[in-house]
Design goal:
Blueprint: E1 2-4, E2 9-11, H1 51-68, E3 75-80, H2 82-94, E4 100-104, H3 107-120, E5 125-129, E6 146-150, E7 174-177, E8 194-198, E9 209-214, H4 216-224, E10 238-239, E11 242-243, H5 258-273, H6 276-297, E12 301-303, E13 315-320, H7 323-326, H8 330-346, E14 363-366, H9 373-392
Helix pairs in contact: 1-5, 2-3, 6-9, 8-9
Length: 393
């Protein structure tokens, strides 16, 4: 039991532990019932360029299209270096033809800003940024600009409520880092030209591979434009002046992990078995509601995002408040979430739910589709218990 010297009360440890203590925001928890024996090993040790190897890569692409309801005239490719590689491949191939606006409101979006400012240095560059928990005014973006943005702020928990701010008759293209939203949100594909995600986010699969989804407008840009900067081999998606469409049929740029591919396929097949995208979104929504309601009823916590319309349903970020916390110095405040995470990790209650290292002191609970609602319900009383421990220390 916890002796809370501030109140003179004893707070007992909760009775129930989560069955799965994995609440990291990436790689995320495996889907319920996952085990190694669910991984197809038929192509292990085979070339990824063999008939069977390419067929499995194409199957992963086709299942992704089916589940995400991607239009038939959009191309889907497996590319190197996770979501980061996919975003940068799109930026390196497509930017520079028109004025560019890069919009960011958390750490990963700021990486795309740095790529534009320090590496690519396109002419007529506009930066739109906002503090953690906020989103800049996206309606000011000129429809003639190419736009780079993050759909969901992975390290802030702020998600764009919609894509109405993207003009139907836009002249530029949109490059969209959607890794913390895809499979947890319904998106309007007509507004998205180059969309990226990684396997280890919402689907909880093994890392290292990125997905690049191109609209016909994105394909036209790549084929009609050659950037002024050199392209590393891992970013080269053209043969001559045309897009190398074999990449979007399973012929990857470099050697993929077939083990990771099969793990991704297993997660997609699980998603299909429970009802597809609608079921995945509902699971994330239901999980997020549990956490959002708890934050609202907990006086010493606040959502990092003040506007409920911008609350994510995946990586929910929460900050501390109240007399105890506010009276701590900067180091003391930073120590609070670290102590809570440490106590619960030591007890195998929850792993990896500290806020991102560049974010304000916070906790971040992943609520995506592979997490079970009951595990979240069991986690929250433990966080309350740990905070009482910290206060009484």
């Amino acid at each position: 039991m916890t002796d809370n010297s501030k109140t003179g009360q004893l707070r007992p440890e909760p009775e129930l532990k989560p069955d799965c203590p994995n609440f990291s925001s990436g790689p995320t928890a495996k889907f319920p019932g996952w085990s190694l024996d669910k991984i197809n090993t038929n192509v292990m040790g085979r070339s990824h360029r063999s008939k069977d190897g390419k067929a499995r890569l194409k199957y992963a692409i086709d299942l992704s299209r089916e589940l995400l309801k991607i239009p038939d005239d959009y191309l889907i490719g497996i590319v190197p270096a996770s979501d980061t590689g996919a975003v940068e491949l799109a930026m390196w191939n497509m930017l520079g033809a028109r004025p560019v606006t890069v919009a960011a409101w958390e750490s990963f979006g700021n990486v795309w800003i740095q790529d534009a400012v320090k590496q690519l240095k396109p002419d007529n560059l506009t930066i739109l940024d906002a503090d953690y928990g906020e989103i800049p005014d996206l309606t000011v973006i000129d429809k003639g600009d190419d736009i780079v943005f993050t759909y969901n702020g992975t390290t802030s928990g702020a998600i764009i409520p919609d894509t109405d701010w993207i003009a139907e008759d836009r002249e530029g293209v949109t490059i969209n880092d959607a890794t913390s939203a895809i499979f947890a949100q319904h998106v309007d594909w007509s507004k998205l030209d180059a969309t990226t995600y990684s396997w280890q986010k919402v689907m909880g699969s093994e890392a290292g591979h990125g997905m690049l989804i191109l609209s016909p407008r994105a394909v036209e840009r790549i084929e009609s434009y050659s950037p002024k900067w050199p392209l590393p081999k891992l970013f080269r998606v053209k043969k001559g002046d045309k897009l190398n469409r074999a990449i979007f049929d399973g012929a990857t740029i470099n050697t993929p992990s077939m083990l990771a591919t099969e793990d991704y396929i297993a997660s997609l097949e699980w998603a299909k078995s429970i009802g597809g995208l609608d079921a995945l979104v509902k699971r994330a929504d239901d999980n997020a509601k549990i956490v959002h309601d708890w934050i609202e009823s907990t006086p010493w916590l606040r959502n990092m995002v003040s506007d409920p319309a911008k609350w994510t349903n995946t990586g929910i970020c929460m900050c501390f408040q109240g007399d105890y916390y506010d009276n701590l110095d900067v180091d003391g405040q930073a120590a609070v979430p670290k102590k809570i995470v440490s106590m619960l990790e030591e007890r195998d209650i929850a792993y990896d739910f500290n806020g991102y290292r560049d974010a304000p002191p916070s906790l971040r609970i992943w609520c995506g589709s592979t997490v079970e609602a009951e595990d979240i319900r069991r986690l929250l009383p433990w966080i309350e218990w740990a905070y009482a421990q910290v206060q009484s220390a």
